[in-house]
Amino acid sequence: MSAMSERGAAASRDRVTIKIPRELYENLKEHIEGTGFSSVTEFIVFVMRTIVSGGKLSEDDKLTAEEVRAVRERLRRLGYL
């Protein structure tokens, strides 16, 4: 195996695929234009790292049923759901 294909194999073991709706992907692609993010993947990794860097969620961090409803409605109006 060449050094280049070894690096590719190692890199693929360090990553997993997460599936999101194509519409969400396309919306994110439009939203990140001109922001410095080179790809949707780079943006999603940034967001996820930002979220988890805050530590574990506690009972106090949970949303109420009304807050969940409001978030879902907002995402629906924005075209994400």
Structural class: mainly alpha
Portion of residues in beta strands equals: under 5%
Write down the overall geometry: extended
Overall mean pLDDT: 80
- What does the largest sheet look like? none
How far apart lie the N and C ends?
A: 44 Å
Number of strands: 0
Number of H- or I-type helical stretches: 4
Helix content: 55-70%
Order of helices and strands: HHHH
Cα gyration radius (Å): 17 Å
Uncertain stretches: none
Detailed description of the structure:
It is a single chain. The protein is an all-alpha fold and 81 residues long. The chain has a domain at 3-56. The chain is built from four helices and no strands. It has helices at residues 3-13, 22-32, 40-52, 65-77. It starts with a helix and ends with a helix. The mean pLDDT is 80.
